[in-house]
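Researcher: Next entry in the queue.
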Amino acid sequence: MAKQALYYIFKLATSMIADSNFNISNLTPSDARTRGELISVGDNQTFMFLRRIKGKKTDFKKLKEFTEERDAIKELHHSEENSRKISEKQEMIDNILFVDDIINVKVDNNKIYHEIGKHGFFVNHKKYKRLSCGAGQARRNTVTFVCEDVYDELHEIQMNGLKISKINLAKFSAYYGLYMSNIQKVKTPRVCLIDDCELQLFGKKVDWIDDKIELQQDGSIKEYREVEERIINPVMNVCDGQGLISPAFARVWAENLELSYSPCQFIIRSSFVKGMLTTFDFHKFAHEVAGTDKITDHYGREWNIDEIDVLLSVSQFKMYKYYDSWDDYQKSCIKYGHVWGVSRCNPKYDNTCSLLNYQYIQTLDLKPLDLFDLAQPTIDWINKICSGNKLYTLLFLLGVTDKIGSIEDILSKTGNDYVKAIVYNDELLKDPHIQKKIYQSISQCIKDAKIGRLWVDGNYQMMVSDPYAQAQSAFKIEVTGLLKEFEHWNKGQIAKVDACRSPMVDYSEHNILNCINDEKTSEWYKYLSSGVVYNVWGLDTIRHSDSDFDGDLVFTSNNEVMYKTVFPNKNPITYEKNTAPVQRLTYSNIIKADMKTFNSKIGVITNYSTSFIAMLDRFSQDAECSEYKELISRIKLLRRYIGDSIDSAKGIKMKPFPTNWKSRVQIGEKDSEEEKKLKYYHNSLVSSKKPYFMIYIYDKLLEDYKSFKHKYNQRCKITQGCTLDVLMKKTPKNQDEKNFARQYYNYMPVIKNHCIGNELCSIIENNDFEMSKVKKQDNYDKIIAILSDENVVKNNARFKKVYELYKKYNALIRNLFKLNDHSLSDDDMDFFVDNFGNDSSSRNEMYNAIKNEAELICSNSSELATYAVEIAYKLNPNKDKSFAWVICSEGLMKNIISHKSAKIEVPVSDVTGSEYLGKYYKLKEM
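Model: Structure for this entry, 926 residues:
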């Protein structure tokens, strides 16, 4: 899409606000940058409304002018006057882009949040009150606050004429929070609001989760859940979240978004409007199939179809009940200045290869040889990159391209300066900093492979419901669709594929799709260059963990190992859905509702699935094995508990997660044999540990495992006279050794058995990946020369100040790392520079603050980089060099380009080249 301007706002933690006694003074964007409390945010409807209220416009002409002037000054020789001008220009840029009326609050304490939600807080003598908390924000425990002075007017605009007394508060917050979604503004379409396409399906076999009540002998009531096979006749909204856009108007939006292609799926936002529009020629459908040029909307008004650009479904218009007609809604939109925007659309080309995850792998019926076959392409890929070959290194760092463009086009695929540096001058492959960055990237890939991130043919695309069927419904003719049950469509595919959607907890959630293509689908779906089209007669959305068609992504792969090891004939899991209660829409009630949405337990619940699946390896799959059957039942029940976690945020009272699934019971000496038997059974099914492979996901688990293993290794030396590794390999073992080994596995903080996740992890661990590093030079003279400006005449005073800033930068990084409970070596420091914290936006703004200080010391970027290189490479050759590459990157790249190789090579697709992830490439000189 067209490049968006990024605006700046404060992001403050509730604990920081409370520590400042709810009144923060003299906080500047520059100070906030340094402390990681400034973030960049794309433009959105709330920002647009605020600019109108304030009578401001983003002066993009001035913004471009100031940016160009600032950058031009950096090319001049240093002077204090130039440093002052750079600082002034940066301040002018900040003044244009900083939005001081909005503050995002990170909720790290619910009690404090309740206080500031109720009474507000002050920053720089301005009072702020809660504005919104969208669904995405709630998952990140983040709430948007706005300056109280503009709240009433902004809230009136965003309510868009609605007067609501009662509604489900969580849903209202989700819809209202859409105003903060990043969007690119597009032309407002001519809309016809159509009814949802609801069909009753018959004779569908499912695994039904039911709530049961049982009267005990002692008169107490036992409540529990049970899975039972049922035949149901559900009424389904088969196009939930989806609408249709005409091909002609899709091209208009493509121009608005400055795209070189016409997308076929758009994720849309407008006032209380969200969902996905897929491209379909409903004008042709009206004339050739429906035989009409008229269409009647949800409110009963008739429209000329040739004057309509978008068929919007009722499920996409979240407040349709509160407006008398679409005209009524449009009048409010015009009155309050609402716009249409696109937050995302399908890419021009879908990937041909993508990464799996452990949830997709652990739920397949994989045998040892299957695992090796699945892992081998990734192992080969890592080995090729480890070889140090320039072609493979650049393919790894740049990604692949099938077309030759300009150097600028190719380099736009990466945001990493060290990757661009290698392209401009491959001598920099000998740079120790770059070698370390590549090694760290490869190390991360190896670590990822241990947790199931394996390369397979396949990709993620948006789920699309048969648009032909939706058009039939819109024109009130019999719905047949072009696809029968068990038929699907994906451009270019005529095959079986395995379709997966996260989070996946049960074996039944693998979905085998039968992709077909015939004359009618080719004609009516010809605009769908991307997207997986589903028929309207099956239970695919239920199988995909209650998905819909508002932009949900599905992973599909034609990998033979995958689709042949899907467990056959597994019923989809479902249950009676609860209706979300309505509540009074008051400010105080909204605050209380927010707190219910924080700290989502979905990730915790899905981890129980992984643990239960790992525990299955302990038991026989024999039908008589009650433990195995119980674990299978619990895995299925988790699908409902995930639904409960989502529903609880909507105010629906749900059953608590079973404590007996995670708590062991103590076995006493006085217990009868029957009591002991029941307790042993109970404890054998308790999920108190994660499987071993998850040590590569959770750092704390890895530390616990290492500590435990070290302790038992010492104990083994003392009691058994050998190391732990020697003991475990010993055969046969005497009784004492067997007891020691049993105790070791029983008390281990992870499940270390032969479950699929652990076996895959073992395959990767047992591969000896060794990166072939280019031999290091005895000195860095050639590297330093490439990174430096030979024309710089060293100024000792400025050099000393840059050295002091280098020390300050290092101390800042170390301090931040300490706050994140890690110890930091020089070797690990630049990895942390790229990875600390959860918010890359605040991290980058913090670095920008240091950059601003550096520019005050030395206004010429090439000179500044030259000093940084001398400090990092010559004076501190064995220490981290990220200061030069992060803080002085602009000047560094200028110096590198001035020394660029005469021959610049990039990888391009070529059948005569070398194989890489199933395709062939070679280096081509540009």
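Model: Confidence is low (pLDDT under 50) at residues 820-838.
Researcher: Noted, moving on.
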